[in-house]
Specification:
Blueprint lengths: L2 H26 L8 H5 L6 H17 L2 H8 L7 H12 L6 H18 L11 H12 L12 H10 L4 H6 L2 H11 L7 H38 L4 E2 L10 E2 H16 L2 E2 L1 H23 L9 H13 L14 E2 L15
Parallel strand pairs: 3-4
Antiparallel strand pairs: 1-2
């Protein structure tokens, strides 16, 4: 092959690899763009005009795909692979002109690729800049890692997030917005390899903090409902969390179980998240109130007595819902403002 033919063949290979992802995205989100005929036909050796038409089709799709759609799709589809994510990243990084949307997509794709390649049991302390750069080397290449001063506030934001005791602390503190401002404020410097490594580490660890707090809140609600029932409480005023003024605790426990399934997925919507935060507040308030004037404890059922005896014999109770190393994003707060723990809009 001549160099030009070799380059065309490589571009065509990449386009054929990306086309199933983009076509599936178009179907899922009803993006109205006619399919690319030559890519549909899976031609092996197309002319230059077909390669250029395929590249333009991908760019037209990029203009229509929103970052939250890409995030939701890639975190729920089985169509992605290491090679697919690398190709998608190379596609966005190779653009001559990049928009704010391209920056947010690259930011998400870098974290997604890192999460895909990193070991599932990776400890937070092991996620240093050198390790992140090593994992991202197939995408960003090798380079000298020297962190400029304008990136150092990322560690301060991470520390502030780690100090949060509850999810409401994180959401109400403006920490997520600080991370967002750092990304937006650096402009085109975001695409420097060192900056992309630093932001990938930041977003990956921020996701972990976010979901660790989320799952802690879920466990606290379930444990709190159990304690309230032991104190004779059978219903709660949950209007603050958009439920009824006399919501049975048994139904609340069922709702929490459904939330556990929902938030265990790689993608979660924001309205249930806001309800969860408010439910934690309702349960905490009820626990404080009943601790001062507890009601008559409800008699334990035979099965509950047996379980309690078994737990006493075996030691501490097993945590009901652990945080998986996989991460996901929350899309909207209660006011409909789109955001996520990575700090993207």
């Amino acid at each position: 092959m001549t160099p030009q033919l070799s380059e065309l063949a490589e571009e065509w290979r990449k386009a054929r690899l990306l086309y199933p992802l983009y076509a599936a995205l178009a179907r899922e989100f009803v993006i109205e763009l006619p399919p690319c005929g030559d890519l549909e036909a899976e031609i092996d050796a197309p002319p230059q005009e077909s390669v250029e038409a395929a590249q333009q089709w991908l760019l037209d799709m990029d203009d229509r795909i929103q970052v939250h759609q890409l995030r939701q799709f890639l975190q729920t589809t089985s169509l992605t692979s290491d090679e697919g994510l690398r190709t998608l990243l190379a596609h966005h990084l190779g653009k001559q002109q990049r928009s704010d949307s391209d920056r947010d997509k690259v930011d998400f794709l870098l974290v997604q690729y890192f999460s895909h390649c990193a070991p599932s049991r990776l400890e937070d302390a092991d996620v240093d800049l050198d390790y992140v750069a090593q994992v991202l080397e197939p995408v960003l290449g090798s380079f000298e890692l020297s962190i400029p001063d304008w990136l150092k506030p990322l560690d301060e934001v991470l520390q502030a997030a780690s100090d949060c005791a509850k999810l409401s602390d994180l959401l109400g503190s403006g920490i997520l917005e600080k991370g967002r401002k750092l990304k937006v404020g650096c402009g085109e410097d975001f695409f420097q390899p060192t900056a992309m490594v630093a932001f990938t580490r930041f977003s990956f660890l921020m996701r972990r903090v976010f979901f660790r707090l989320l799952h802690q809140d879920l466990n606290a609600i379930v444990d709190g409902l159990r304690q309230l029932e032991q104190r004779g409480v059978r219903s709660l005023d949950c209007r603050r969390a958009q439920f009824s003024a006399d919501e049975p605790t048994s139904r609340l426990r069922m709702i929490c179980q459904s939330w556990k399934v929902m938030f265990h997925a790689e993608y979660s919507s924001g309205q249930p998240l806001r309800m969860l935060v408010d439910m934690r507040s309702v349960v905490d308030s009820a626990l404080a109130r009943t601790a001062k004037s507890p009601g008559k404890p409800a008699p334990a059922a035979p099965r509950a007595k047996a379980a309690a005896a078994k737990a006493t014999a075996q030691g501490p109770e097993i945590v009901e819902f652990e945080v998986s190393s996989g991460s996901s994003d929350w899309e909207q707060d209660g006011a409909g403002q789109k955001t996520d723990p990575d700090g993207n809009a």
